[in-house]
UniProtKB/TrEMBL annotation:
Record-level GO BP terms: glycine decarboxylation via glycine cleavage system; protein lipoylation
Keyword terms of this UniProt record: Lipoyl
The protein's name: Glycine cleavage system protein H
Gene3D superfamilies xrefs: 2.40.50.100
InterPro entries for this protein: GCV_H, GCV_H/Fam206, Single_hybrid_motif
A single cellular component GO annotation: cytosol
Keyword Nucleotidyltransferase belongs to the record: no
Pfam families reported for this sequence: GCV_H
Length: 148
């Protein structure tokens, strides 16, 4: 697992570094996604999570959910076109799960990509994510998760 400035970035995931979103392939052809530890570290304690509804198709680069913390309200942007097939009801009731367990119970959505092969080619594998994240943290003047 890559650890950049105190932020864990598991090797088995794919990342959209620009938007601080992680992706996990599922055996049934769907993809689970959530906010990275970097995203939750920058945002602070989450207080609200409003996903797009099941059945909704979300275009590449558009919001698949709105997240809110004490310091920030904004979109979680998906890296590819996909249909929402499941939302995390547990996260609806307890948004702080995204802070305490971002890669487990804090996942946001399961989606069915329109073209996963093309989408996957645009994402950064966990084994190669440390360098891009270090550069992003420098650019964003983010000290890291331990300092968040």
């Amino acid at each position: 697992m890559a650890v950049v400035r105190g932020c864990n970035l598991p090797d088995d995931l794919l990342y959209d570094v620009d938007n601080n979103i992680w992706y996990r392939e599922n055996a049934d052809g769907t993809v689970t996604l959530g906010m990275t530890m970097v995203a939750t570290g920058m945002a602070g304690q989450l207080v609200a999570y409003t996903p797009k509804r099941v059945g909704k198709t979300v275009e590449s680069g558009k919001s698949c959910a709105t997240v809110e913390s004490g310091k920030w309200v904004g979109p979680a942007k998906i890296a590819f076109e996909a249909e929402v097939v499941e939302t995390n009801e547990l996260l609806n009731g307890s948004p702080k799960l995204a802070n305490t367990d971002p890669y487990g119970q804090g996942w946001m959505l399961r989606v069915r990509p329109a073209d996963w092969a093309a989408a996957k080619a645009t994402l950064t594998p966990g084994s190669a994510v440390a360098g891009p994240y270090e550069a992003k943290m420098v650019a964003d003047a983010f000290a890291g998760c331990a300092a968040a």
